Amino acid sequence: MKIAGIDLADDKFPQHVGIIMDGNGRWASERGYSRQRGHNAGMQALKDFLNLLEKTPVHIATLFCFSKENWKRSQDELDGLFQLLRQFYRSEFPTLKKRKVHVLHSGDYAGLPPDVVRIFETMQKETRDNKGKVLNLAMNYSGRDELMRAARRLLLQGGSPEDINEEVLAALLDHPELGDIDLVIRTSGEQRLSNFSLWQSAYAELYFTNIYWPDFSDKDFAEAILAYQGRERRFGAAGEPRESEMLRA
């Protein structure tokens, strides 16, 4: 398929994409706007991305919306972020249902406003039988916290040290059915995972762009996919030698 004039191989798209949607505040600051205006612009970018996602072979998108570390922000900013989720629910959820999108939440409900928890519960309940794309919203989430919660689940089930292996622990994560992430995209120029999906991203391809999330366009996504399609995923195995390596042999 072609996105923004860029030719992409349909059979080489990642199945599961994770996106760290970063840079709303800096986007606003550079323009002399409030941080909330930056988050509003980020929400529009999210809506545009979801429209694009529907047209691609990508099956699962896990989006880092709000980390456990974000509680350090001002109360006004936190209130604004939660209000955006309420607006997203009212304006976008009907469309997601029509598209048969399966909406999920990853993270800890503790500390979230009660109505926000109800929104996530409603979206999950009303889309649980949908067979279209999967939209996993990571809110009040951190990768380390997810692993700790998985360990606690094992202990509550009466597990012992001998019971622990990768398969057992993976099955106790928030949504083990989603499997690993193939491609992680982070906007804003930062080059780190920042506690995002640590287990699921163990062998993900990483793509960093200087574009702030509010400016992230179809073309930027296409460039990320093109970079992914040009990489060799080996998962720890030896790959075919490159031409330069053959010349040195």
Structure, explained:
- The chain has 249 residues and is of the alpha/beta class.
- It has a single domain, classed as Undecaprenyl pyrophosphate synthetase.
- It is 41% helix and 15% strand.
- The strands form 2 sheets. It has a 6-stranded parallel β-sheet, sandwiched between helices.
- Helix 1 crosses helix 2 (35-53) and helix 3 (75-98) runs parallel beside helix 4.
- The chain starts with a strand and ends with a helix.
Globally, the shape reads globular
The CATH topology is Undecaprenyl pyrophosphate synthetase
Give the full name of the CATH homologous superfamily.
Answer: Decaprenyl diphosphate synthase-like
Mean pLDDT: 94
Cα radius of gyration in angstroms: 19 Å
| Domain module tally | 1
CATH class: Alpha Beta
- CATH architecture heading: 3-Layer(aba) Sandwich
Number of strands: 8
Termini gap:
39 Å
Spell the H/E element sequence: EEEHHEHEHEHHEEHH
**Which blocks of ≥5 consecutive residues have pLDDT under 50?**
243-249
Counted by DSSP, the helix tally is: 8
The percentage of residues in β strands lies in 15-25%
Helix coverage percent of residues? Answer: 40-55%
The major pleated sheet works out as: 6 strands, parallel
Strand order of the largest sheet: 5-6-4-3-7-8
Secondary structure category: alpha/beta
Q: What is the compact description of this entry?
A:
The chain is an alpha/beta fold and 249 residues long. It has a single domain, classed as 3-Layer(aba) Sandwich (Undecaprenyl pyrophosphate synthetase), CATH 3.40.1180.10. It has helices at residues 24-30, 35-53, 75-98, 114-127, 143-156, 166-170, 218-229, 243-248; strands at residues 2-3, 6-7, 16-20, 60-67, 102-106, 134-141, 183-186, 205-208.
